[in-house]
Fold these 4 entries.
Entry 1:
Amino acid sequence: MSLEAAQRYAWNLACTLKVIIILIETDDGYNAMPSDEYDGDVERVIREYDVYAS
């Protein structure tokens, strides 16, 4: 997935699910997933999307 598509997808997931979503870089591009499901390398995290952050 391209970075632009992954950013839109991550924000949409965060708003819809009302959970913190992280955007990670993978060997195949980028991916978005809930932060509590990620147990990989923190160096791969690009951004965190939190709809409740001020």
Entry 2:
Amino acid sequence: MTTPSAPALKEIFNRERLEHIAREMLAVDPAFDHHGFLDHATRDLAGLSVMQRLARVSESLHAVLPTGYEDNLTRLYALAPRLDSRFVCMFLPHYVASYGRHDFPRSMAALKHFTTFGSSEFAIRPFLASDLPRTLAVLREWAGDANEHVRRLASEGSRPRLPWSFRLEAIQADPELAAPILEQLKADPSLYVRKSVANHLNDIAKDHPDWLLERLEGWSLEHPHTAWIARHALRSLIKQGNRRALAIIGAGHAPQVRLHGLRVEPAAIRLGERINLSFALESTAEASQRLVVDYAIDYIKASGATRAKVFKLKTLTLPAGAREQLGRAQHIRELTTRRHYPGRHVLHILVNGERLGSTAFDIHD
């Protein structure tokens, strides 16, 4: 039996959802031109991506709302709690970014309000691009807010490499610009916020690894929230086997282990099937040791060359003389970020950045 594929993400803004927005807007404003809104919003809808559809909603509202920015914000404030999806609510801050840059104080207040319904992370970025000092000052204030959604916006909105958005070149060039925000949030009680801080720091690692390492080496990791952020912020450098990154999380030493029974089953698969990786690590040390265990697959490219992709497996403390059995099942299927090609794929076991052994499996047409 064929498993039905999940609907495309862009279908979150399908005709039914647009009708929902129109009905709720009409409830807020009985004079709202819901037919005009739907005519505008559904035009050539099938060919639009999810972000284009999100933008289309705010554009369509602007096309039919008859009054000025301040009055329209009043309508949108009333609309926000009536919408049925946090992602859908993101058209509200998009409206602010599109039509409110002339009114900075009112727009900042609107983005802060709307982020509690659906994140304003994309909408804050045009303000950062056009007036970086003033917008960063607002974000530093928001980093101390009581609401976790507002605190997260301070970190997420200022990420230099936020996915699905343009890069903030000034912050990408100089991470010190947003560092005060990250310092305020480095022990945040909210996991939602901590994930954002770690992702922001991981963005920095791609352009300024030494800056990140020096910053984290200066942090006290006794607080569990700060330690969590550091581990996740260093994930890209740890995958690269960076010794300073491994040392920060207590795994900078060479591993004292033997690798046993490394195998991948089945040895040959077709695209869409799974491989099962299994092996054991046996300690040869006289004391417990912290181990970061990863594996890498040398994926074949269209040219026939290979490129390694590192996957996290487990971080553990292995007692002296102990043995740990490890394994992972992985679905080998096409992804938007990875195309698979037939041939022999070599798999390597990495412990504290060192390659301890390799095996292989084949992908057939």
Entry 3:
Amino acid sequence: MKGFLEGFGALLLVSGIAGVIRELTDGWFRFLGLTRFLTENVWFLQGRELFANIVIAVLGLVLAIAGSRRAEA
């Protein structure tokens, strides 16, 4: 479980940061389209793509930290 949390958190962190960079450069940086799929297809996130990507990056950071602090049973 520890490795899963760390890996999934790292994936979310990288995806969120890539999404923030893509939103700040008006779509020039197309690396990891995972967050683009999420923010364009979820109706309440349309128009709030930058905020959504920041939240995804922070959530990934929190999961990675929680995974690293979790004691291996």
Entry 4:
Amino acid sequence: MSHDTRNRTNLPAVVLAGGRSLRMGQPKADVLLCGKPLISQVLTRLVPQVDAVAINHNGPIATPLPPDIDRFEDTIPGFLGPLAGIASALLYTRQSHPEATHVLTVPIDTPFFPTDLAARLNMGLDSADQIAVAWSGGNLHPIFGLWPVSISSVLEDFVRHDEKRRVRAFLAQHDTKYVQFPVIDGDDPFFNINSPEDLRTAEQRLQAP
């Protein structure tokens, strides 16, 4: 299958899939959406946009991964939330892609994200130390972000010592660019699947004419 590479960026990306997924009752990476695992849905959308992709996942993944996609676990144990996954992604990027200034992160549970996500976030950056995150329909989607490798140690320290570990609180402390994405025909591209009910809504959306 050929990919449209017009929106490809020279960036590495990490799929964040390290949560407990308690409401789904199984790892989200292996949840089937219209017969296709979520991890496969996300990779189909992400791979054409970037130079390399890895997956942050704590534990085994039942779905076979392509041989060129690495998997790594959180470097800070304890399931401490999405910032722990992002901190792990930054450390992974420092080690595996030392030339990269940023890493793109996307969550495992949002299969309709824009096909120009990486390109538009990248265009929003003004400096090598700036964070760029997605915004749509009046809502912030910070897990869809470009994170500078230069803040790796700062973010790790925040995750280890801030009791609440709120993404918005961390962004407020740093130079952050908020990049607007459109909601098309009422469908938010950042709709995420947290429960079986959300999964049914996503299936209806995929099957709509």
